[in-house]
Amino acid sequence: MLIVQKFGGTSVGDLERIANVAKRVAKTRDEGHDVIVVVSAMSGETNKLIEYAHFFSKNPQREAMDLLLSSGERVTSALLSIALNEMGYKAVAMTGRQAGIVTDKRHTSARIDHINPKPMGDAVKEGNIVVVAGFQGINEEGRVTTLGRGGSDLTAVAIAGALKADLCEIYTDVDGVYTTDPRIEPKAKKMDRISYDEMLELASLGAKVLQNRSVELAKKMGVNLVTRSSFNDNPGTLITKEENIMEKPLVSGIALDKNQSRVSLKGVEDRPGIASEIFNALAEDAVNVDMIVQTIGADGKTEIDFTVPQSEIERVKGVMERFKESIESIEYKDDVAKVSIVGVGMKSHSGVAAKAFTTMAKENINIEMISTSEIKISMVIDEKYAELAVRALHEAYELDK
Amino acid sequence: MLIVQKFGGTSVGDLERIANVAKRVAKTRDEGHDVIVVVSAMSGETNKLIEYAHFFSKNPQREAMDLLLSSGERVTSALLSIALNEMGYKAVAMTGRQAGIVTDKRHTSARIDHINPKPMGDAVKEGNIVVVAGFQGINEEGRVTTLGRGGSDLTAVAIAGALKADLCEIYTDVDGVYTTDPRIEPKAKKMDRISYDEMLELASLGAKVLQNRSVELAKKMGVNLVTRSSFNDNPGTLITKEENIMEKPLVSGIALDKNQSRVSLKGVEDRPGIASEIFNALAEDAVNVDMIVQTIGADGKTEIDFTVPQSEIERVKGVMERFKESIESIEYKDDVAKVSIVGVGMKSHSGVAAKAFTTMAKENINIEMISTSEIKISMVIDEKYAELAVRALHEAYELDK
Asked: What is the DSSP string of A250-309?
């Protein structure tokens, strides 16, 4: 098999840990597999470099930032290659450029355009373990670019796709994907398998194991993704095509997002296009609106409720200032939480939503907003009931079984 | 004018110092010049990375070392570019690769093969200050290489040569080249100008301002080199063609090297080729033999004396073991010093050597070995007289005037 293994910042956090990563990579090689390793910067390095840059500028030149930030991953890849060589393994370190990773021009948040698989493929054929500096590539002008947050995961998935690897293992400090956050519900169980779509919903709903960009790319390229811990030998969670999952559970997991704010626009002027104007204005100011509910109150007046990340609430206020003539009153509420139930089984089963609402009612939790998709039900509730709601739903759907 | 400015590790030792370098570069730009800046890694960074590598291996994989070590200069170049941009100057950071620096394949001690001047030339034409990461390039296979000790100086000189710059300024923490080490002779004077050849002799004799590789390259490419301090505005020393120096002093400077050992081979077997065998064997073991003197003693026996760097004395002993059948006795002496007088004026004036010997005699200093070249006289003496000899010669040749 060809296996791509990606090790994040905490997994390569110091020299001892890099030595442990070398042992794990060597073990995979000993099992007869070809291995391409993708590494992040040692934890703390990237933040240190950002601090350096901010000493000179609040808004540092982006092209130079990419040159600056890409250096951390280069260091780790060189060190891991040195460690593997010393252990008697043939290894070669490659920068994003050397690994043939070509991106668009967007400095500090570039997207991978394509990968030239030849340099890595040739090195693997020659018996090398290839150690790639994650998070970086070059654009068509030959300038170094970086991929933004989660960039090393993306590098790993894109390489696995381009080289048709059998498996792409993402090593972090957690064992895999859980039915819910174990810090909230100790009975939470690690899932063996989960579909791309479920993972996407869970990730966008607050599960921090993987970023959506990586899961989306894995889905697009059909990469079998495994998320597992670099600190033990537990098998982790396989994220794969829905058809690869035999037994589809009704509900796979419960996600919680407490970083949402609710905005209620009451008495919105009754004319066509007003909602479109508001949400276009928010989009132009880069506000990420999540759930939207529009209702006509008993008084015949239109109410629009929506949620946004708490960090964007000031920008929302700025936009709303422009609409104050058209809206009777605006309420902002920070202490809300979004609880979501995710599962591909919902597609073919009814009654999943009903059970959620019943469970909330039993606990006397008021549901303020509801939104559903084919494989997800999200509810906005008062933040103080967040953990209670998660535990109640976890039990109701028997996720601890 | 097009000016290349190179700032070494101490000049960019921390963020405050990088900010000062930015001011100095900006000032040169304000004076109407085009500027290309070459930077080293922040002092301490390279040693830190070497320590990291040695955690894994005593003899780390060279190709990976180059990837590792080249990252320090990249960081500095990115930070300086960010600083200049923030100050309102158009600046662009470039790696060795982006600057078009192509080297041979020798990892960790590569030589610059050629420079493609187009990327830097175009950037300068577009009004940019170009900030190049020193010490690095890529080889023909596209792998990152580093240039070894003094590599950033070499980068600067090679760029100045390739782009036909009017001046290449090497900024360090000293004011320039002195007639002798001011710690030994406080009356030592900074020279305004010195020829390449004199500088080469002084550098190889222990003056630590510039490495020979850089001076040799400057000579070959006809680059006007200035060495000056980044901590004040003193004009420094211009190192240039002999014909650019109007008033040629008889003697330019006195150099001292205390890191030499003297090896005396007494009663060497009297057969043709024995000396050749000995020195070939030393060369094969990478011993850098400096001065060699062969004499026939009063007893008709051959004596061979030579000097080597103290650090190589163990290797010499290893080689000599193989010749013990052919040599009556071998003496090793560590407490010797080499004092040298350098000056292009010697070429056309006699009596320079005689004055040196007279000066030594006056001070009752025994000369153990002598070697001369067109512009240099070197004498090996007892180490305890080293400073006295330097001061006496400095006065004899009126270098304080």
From this structure: S--EEEEE--EEEEEEEEE--STTHHHHHHHHHHHTT-----EEEEE-TTS-EEEEEEEE
Burial A102-129 (b: 16+ CB within 10 A, else e): bbeeebbebbbeebebebbbebbeeebb
Q: Which pLDDT does position A12 carry in this prediction?
A: 95
Give the residue from B25, B77, B84, B16 showing the smallest Cα distance to A55: B16
Chain A residues lying within 8 Å of B63, measured CB to CB: 81, 92-93
Q: What is the largest CA-CA distance in chain B?
A: 78
Query: Which residue carries 């003094």 as its tokens?
Result: B150
ipTM comes to 0.82
pTM over 0.80: yes
**Residue A88: what pLDDT?**
97
- B18, B61, B92 member nearest A81 (Cβ): B61
B315: distance to nearest CA of chain A, Å? 26
What lies within 8 Å, CB to CB, of B160 at 6+ separation is: B4, B167, B168, B218, B221, B223, B225
Closest chain A C-alpha to B345 CA, distance in angstroms? 49
Q: Is A364 exposed, middle or buried (0-12, 13-18, 19+ CB in 10 A)?
A: exposed
If we measure between CA atoms, which residue out of B311, B191, B134, B81 comes closest to residue A53? B81
> Which among A169, A190, A152, A226 is positioned nearest to A28, based on CA atoms?
A169
Instruction: Provide DSSP, A196-236.
Output: HHHHHHHHHTT--SS-HHHHHHHHHHT--EEEEESSS----
- B22, B63, B68 member nearest A79 (Cβ): B68
Q: Choose among A56, A71, A85: nearest Cβ to B75.
A: A71
The vertex-A233 CA angle with A197 and A243, nearest 5°, equals: 25
* Average pLDDT estimate for A192-208: 82
Integer Cα distance of B56 and A18 in angstroms? 9
Give the gap in angstroms from C-alpha B61 to the nearest C-alpha of chain A.
Answer: 6
The β-bridge partners of A242 are none
> Can you tell me the mean pLDDT for A256-285?
90
Residue in A52, A62, A98 to test binding to B, most B beta-carbons within 10 Å: A52
Q: What is the pLDDT of residue A295?
A: 86
Give every CB contact of residue A64 below 8 A, 6+ residues apart in sequence: A53, B77, B78, B79, B81, B82, B85, B92, B93
Can you read off the two tokens belonging to residue B247?
A: 């008033």
Q: How many CB atoms lie within 10 A of CB A242?
A: 16
Tokens of B87: 């100050």
The mean per-residue pLDDT over the stretch A46-71 comes to 96
Mean pLDDT estimate for chain B: 93
Q: What is the pLDDT of residues B269-287, one digit of tens each?
A: 888 888 899 999 999 988 9
Say yes or no for a CB contact (<8 Å) between B86 and A18.
no
Q: What is the mean pLDDT of residues A52-58?
A: 97
- What domains, with CATH codes, occur in chain B? 2-173 (3.40.1160.10), 254-396 (3.30.2130.10)
Which own/partner contact pairs does B299-303 have at CB distance under 8 Å and 24+ positions apart? B301/B266, B301/B267, B301/B268, B301/B270, B301/B328, B302/B267, B302/B268, B302/B269, B302/B270, B303/B264, B303/B265, B303/B266, B303/B267, B303/B268
Nearest alpha carbon to residue A390 among A337, A339, A335, A351: A339
Contact A67 B95 (CB under 8 A): yes
The whole-angstrom distance between residue A41's C-alpha and the CA centroid of its chain comes to 18
Please list every residue in chain A whose beta carbon sits closer than 8 Å to the beta carbon of residue B19. 55-56
> How does residue A362 score in pLDDT terms, banded at 50, 70 and 90?
very high
Half-sphere exposure of B135 (CA within 13 A, CB side): 26
Q: Where are the beta strands (DSSP E) in B1-47?
A: 2-7, 34-39
Using a CB-CB cut-off of 8 Å, the residues of chain A touching B47 are none
